[in-house]
Amino acid sequence: MKFKITVFTFLLGMVVTMAQQKKWTLEECVTYAVENNLTVEQFELDLENAKIDESDALGDMLPTLNASSTASKNVGFTIVSTSNQPVAGNQSTVSVSGNISSNITLYNGLRTFKQLQRAKLNAISNQYRLENLKDDIKLSVANGYLQILSNKEALAVSRAQYAITEQDLKRTNELVESGVVPRGDLLQIEATAAGQEQQIVNNESLVLISRINLAQLLQITDYDNFDIANESFEIPPSDILNNSAKTIFEKALEFRNDIKFSKSTVDLAEKDLEIAKGAYAPTLSGFFQYGARYSDATQPLPDGNGGVFTPGFIDQLWIFDGISYGAQLNVPIFNGWSTRNSVNRSRINLEKSKLQFEQDKLDLETTVNQRYVDVTTFAKAYYAAEKTLEARTLAYQYSKERFDVGLMNAFDFSQEQSRVDNAKADLIRTKYDYIFRLKILEFYFGIPISLE
Fold it and tell me: Where in the cell is it found (predicted)?
């Protein structure tokens, strides 16, 4: 038994350790964020409510059916319900009545039908709003993920640079001890190493902060054990720039959920105007009712054979039943301009929705053009940073050769090394800036977010 407990504890510890060591990919982060975001859950509940409203609108088109029953006891003067005859004195009477009724709206300016159409449009609108929120979350997660990658790569570069400086420091110390170079050169390299150590600490802090930021987007609170997959990404191949900004914009108009949501508000406003105008029309409704009564004070009735009998409970329900049916017409004549004002408000709301829709399309066009310019700009910045790093690296190698033979002092050599460090940091920053802008532009073109 003790052996089994030990094995179970070991396996449980392995599972916990593996869970803590999980490295999240971008796809996993995006999926998890969408499935666990609280705002998404709220919008999903709004969508469920919209579907219930659709069921309500459908139910309004169906006839109603209701049943009711009343039982009462009266002492003293009363009217017998079955004979409409008065009963005086201290006599007590028991009465029972029941009825079944049904009502249906036959015509009300098609408002009931249009309410159903509006409910369906509202459900579609809520679906677009939900999908648009998911799109925003995906972009935010991708940006947070790439920020971690950028900070991790910068940290790796700073550590590699510090390792090289440590070698230079060791070699310079040997040269100082042998009297080949002055001690000032050693102090200069020690200062460079201290600065690089500080940069490593700063980069470690940036990695931690970016991990926390992404974990918060995913609503994960175990910050210490949250991390992404340790992968190195290069500029992904893409032919998105083979399309013009206008082409990307026209494609975005077809599938962007924010544009669909904006258009759905126009459709809803149009339907609201139709419903408001329907209030000018008369309302025609039909009704049907069946009822029966019983009273213990009922007088004897002829039995058809020359005699009389006092009907019992069941007999009275059959004898004193009745059916009523008919139609009711209501014609609106004057209601204090309520209908007219409602129509005018709906017309104004429709115009506002149309203007907002046009504004949203203009905003999308502006955004697409800005993203297009961003991609071209950051692409040039990235390739310029590549050339800069290549030139700085060659200059550094030349300076190192001169420094090793004593033809360059430590201060000038450290300046060359600092320029290389800055060029590497700038290359990392521009690379991930370019990748993110590229992915945003592809996303507007309908390409799912992926780093492959």
Answer: Cell outer membrane
SS3 percent helix, strand, coil of the chain, rounded to 5, is 65, 15, 20
Average pLDDT across the chain, whole number: 86
Task: Check if the beta carbon of residue 93 is closer than 8 Å to that of residue 74.
Answer: yes
Query: What digits encode the pLDDT tens for the residues 132-187?
Result: 999 999 999 989 998 998 898 889 888 888 888 888 788 778 777 877 667 787 78
DSSP codes of every residue in 238-284: --GGGS-HHHHHHHHHHH-HHHHHHHHHHHHHHHHHHHHHHTTS-EE
The single residue listed with the structure tokens 């009998």 is 309
Q: What is the 3-state secondary structure (H, E, C) of 134-167?
A: HHHHHHHHHHHHHHHHHHHHHHHHHHHHHHHHHH
**pLDDT value of position 268:** 96
Cα-Cα-Cα-Cα torsion 437, 438, 440, 443, nearest 10 degrees, comes to 180
User: Are 403 and 348 in contact, with CB atoms under 8 Å apart?
Assistant: no
Is residue 399 within 8 Å of 408, Cβ to Cβ?
A: yes
DSSP state of 224: G
- Are 101 and 66 in contact by the 8 Å Cβ rule? The answer is yes
Q: How big is the CA angle at 110 (ends 106 and 113), to the nearest 5 degrees?
A: 95
Residue type, 300: P
User: The tokens of 63 are what?
Assistant: 């006839």
Per the CB < 8 A criterion, the answer to whether 74 and 296 are in contact is no
Give the separation between CA 378 and CA 438, rounded to whole angstroms. Answer: 9
**Beta carbons of 46 and 125 less than 8 angstroms apart:** no
Residue reference for tokens 């409970």: 313
Domain locations in the chain as residue ranges: 66-107+283-331
Instruction: Supply the pTM of this predicted model.
Output: 0.80
Q: Is the pLDDT reported for residue 78 higher than 80?
A: no
C-alpha distances (whole Å) from 139 to each of 33, 270, 438 are: 11, 33, 12
Query: CB–CB of 142/436 below 8 Å?
Result: yes
